[in-house]
Amino acid sequence: MIRAGIIGGAGYTAGELIRLLVNHPRAEIGFVHSTSNAGNRVADVHGGLEGDTELRFCDAYDLGEVDVLFLCSAHGESRKWLASHDLPQELRIVDLAQDFRDESEGFVYGLPELQRDRIREARRVANPGCFATAIQLALLPLAAARLLRDEVHVTTITGSTGAGVKPSATTHFSWRTANVSVYKAFTHQHLLEIGRTLQRLAPGILASVHTSCPLGEEELRQLYADYYATAAFTRATERSVDLKQVVNTNKALVQPARYGDKVHVVSVIDNLLKGASGQAVQNMNLMFGLDEKEGLRLKASAF
């Protein structure tokens, strides 16, 4: 049984992670850390866990009692935490913040569709961001085939959970409801990790999903089908995709299509699962030699 610890357990991603680990057949939670909630029941903060766990948040913890540690604090906190702690040599770490997505400090970038074998051997994994996951899954087959030769235009829409628990002027309900806005155009932090991936597969390309492509419709579909043939959760499809097909699952659906000389790719994921906590558990499974799908066989709505 894999013993897991969680740092920063009060946020949305931590709540989903706890839900997954509580129901994981090969894992159990050793502790859930939250300084501000120490002593409180986890289910009192994450109400959806009522009846599933009687765990309480802690302030103190013993790293020697867990096999894997998930860092779920805000961006920038993971690097500070790592610098201030002595870690057991065998401890594996999955960081859900952006701090080590540049693969510094011995971290491996944790996108299984890109580098599954490296993740299997890793002791430290940097979990990709949600936007970065969806966009890269749309582009990886083209990049791997050296077919990204022109500008790439991307439009993405996400729900409010991506901004975290702490409210701000543009994240509270009365502003978000029935509203859509542009967020960090040309400056989003996930562009850095997307750029590193695409440069690795197709040097000299920086992503700013539609782009020019010389492939015909059937060749394009076959390219995507072949690339994701062995992927545990990502599936290329010819049918139109929508969010209801992936919500509450770790699935990613990618639909490539050709229009004139352009290729248009639609990629959909659940931002808290394949875009965060589900992918983190997928990475844990790989790090411990388990089936990637262990504890993640969740189904979307049939509607």
Brief synopsis:
It contains nine helices and eleven strands. It is of the alpha/beta class. The strands form two sheets. A seven-stranded parallel sheet has the order 3-2-1-4-5-7-6, with helices on one face.
Helix content: 25-40%
| Secondary structure category | alpha/beta
* Adjacency order of strands in the biggest sheet: 3-2-1-4-5-7-6
Low-pLDDT runs:
none
Beta-strand residue percentage: 15-25%
What's the overall average pLDDT, rounded? Answer: 87
Largest sheet: 7 strands, parallel
C-alpha Rg, in Å?
19 Å
CA(first)-CA(last) distance? 36 Å
Q: How many separate helices?
A: 9
Number of strands: 11
- H/E element sequence: EHEHEEHEEHEHHHEHEEEH
Task: Give the overall shape.
Answer: elongated
Q: Mind explaining what this structure looks like?
A:
Helix content is 29%, strand content 17%. The chain has 303 residues and is of the alpha/beta class. It is elongated and about 60 Å long. Strand 2, helix 2 and strand 3 form a beta-alpha-beta unit. The protein contains nine helices and eleven strands. The two termini are 36 Å apart. The chain has a seven-stranded parallel sheet with strand order 3-2-1-4-5-7-6, covered by helices on one side. A four-stranded mixed sheet has the order 8-11-10-9.
